[in-house]
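Lecture notes, continued. The same structure-token format from the folding unit now serves as the input rather than the output. Read the line below as a description of shape only.
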């Protein structure tokens, strides 16, 4: 069990460095397009503020190469100022005298947001000097940036190795959800996979083969499986070098008595038109871009019978309104199921939001690459180094 902010004792007057994930989308004017990530950090920040800690918040934003005024965290500070009136100060530097002075003047319950960590190349290099500077700012370190926890950067891995540390509420939720879902899954456990590539999800599928009862495969990755069972797939997306891996998954599932459900029809693009055809009717020149109505029914029936569902990967090219139907219907079916539901992956979470059912999903794992690693059952290095209880 990792130490959480509930376990760190009295924080009154203590300087707490909190690694947040404020990597929010900005428009060309520097306005925040979606403040979800900031709002998601509020519970951890409020908890510490209410207990009189002095908070030093830090995050990266985008992929700057050195200083880049378009990737300043100032807009995030403005958003935080609205949430915590008269408590937030923005530092236009990541380290240095300005930061040290500001910290030395802090009162209990106040917040400082440092400038974008990645303006200093020491962040991604996990440079020891940079780590030292970050550590010197605080007494305790709290990691609440789940989305970067698969990376060994200075502000997560580096500082956690050097100072007393704990996880925030966001990281705690991600860990407990997957711990329970994988160690004590509710059955029937139906895992749904989609997206463009099998290669992205190979480890994930193999991990789920250890605990799922049914695996539903749609989206572009289904074509590699259909190829493996000898179906023609026309011009649909396929990874020829993974056909053997797909076959191995099918064999392993059979051995373990796990049901694998593949599409039986699809929406194909023929020149500029789309039509629904059975899987076996596909011809060269046709591209499968969504699951068809019969497959939606078939998949929905599996979903309806589940007690636990994990979904990763859209059922088709959902960004194109012409091919979003399958993904939207599956999102609705998952939302409606009387099951514990987890959706992970950047596009899958976007699709659930697009469908307007996010509040009906038990857990949306928003960590991108970190979510994928967790679903693969892998260790996240930046979490691994946090103090245990
Ligand atoms: P996530 O981000 O949820 O992990 P992925 O990134 O693996 O999901 O997959 C999403 C991508 O898969 C989307 O860009 C979508 O257009 C693409 N995709 C899904 N089905 C198909 C298909 N049949 N053909 C081509 N691309 C597809
Ligand atoms: Mg994606």
């Amino acid at each position: 069990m990792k130490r959480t902010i509930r376990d760190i004792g009295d924080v009154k007057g203590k300087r707490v460095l909190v690694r947040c994930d404020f990597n929010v989308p900005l428009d060309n004017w520097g306005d925040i397009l979606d403040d979800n990530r900031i709002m998601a950090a509020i519970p951890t920040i409020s908890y510490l503020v209410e207990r009189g800690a002095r908070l030093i918040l830090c995050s990266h934003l985008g992929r700057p190469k050195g200083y880049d005024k378009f990737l300043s965290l100032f807009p995030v500070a403005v958003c935080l100022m609205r949430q915590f009136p008269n408590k937030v100060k923005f530092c236009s530097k990541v380290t240095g005298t300005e930061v040290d002075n500001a910290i030395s003047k802090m009162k209990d319950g106040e917040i400082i947001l440092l400038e974008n960590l990645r303006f200093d190349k020491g962040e991604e290099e996990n440079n020891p000097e940079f780590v030292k500077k970050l550590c010197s700012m605080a007494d305790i370190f709290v990691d609440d940036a789940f989305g970067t926890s698969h990376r060994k950067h200075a502000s997560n891995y580096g500082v956690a190795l050097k100072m007393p540390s704990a996880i925030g509420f966001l990281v705690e939720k991600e860990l407990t959800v997957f711990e329970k879902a994988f160690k004590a899954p509710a059955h029937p456990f139906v895992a749904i996979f989609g997206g463009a590539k099998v290669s992205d999800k190979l480890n994930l599928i193999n991990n789920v083969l250890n605990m799922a009862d049914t695996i539903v495969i749609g989206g572009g990755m289904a074509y590699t499986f259909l190829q493996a069972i000898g179906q023609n797939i026309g011009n649909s997306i396929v990874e020829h070098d993974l056909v053997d891996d797909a076959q191995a998954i099918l064999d392993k599932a059979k051995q373990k008595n796990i049901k694998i459900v593949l599409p039986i029809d699809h929406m194909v693009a023929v020149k500029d038109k789309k039509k629904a055809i059975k899987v076996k009717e596909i011809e060269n020149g046709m591209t499968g871009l969504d699951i068809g109505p019969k497959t939606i029914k078939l998949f929905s029936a599996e979903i309806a019978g589940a007690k636990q569902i994990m979904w990763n990967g859209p059922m088709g090219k959902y960004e194109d309104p012409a091919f979003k139907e399958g993904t939207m219907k599956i999102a609705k079916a998952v939302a409606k199921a009387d099951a514990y539901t987890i959706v992970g992956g950047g596009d899958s979470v976007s699709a659930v939001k697009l469908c307007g059912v996010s509040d009906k999903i038990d857990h949306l794992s928003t960590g991108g690459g970190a979510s994928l690693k967790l679903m693969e059952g892998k260790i996240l290095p930046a979490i691994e180094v946090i103090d245990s209880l």
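Point for the exam: The two ends are 6 Å apart (CA to CA).
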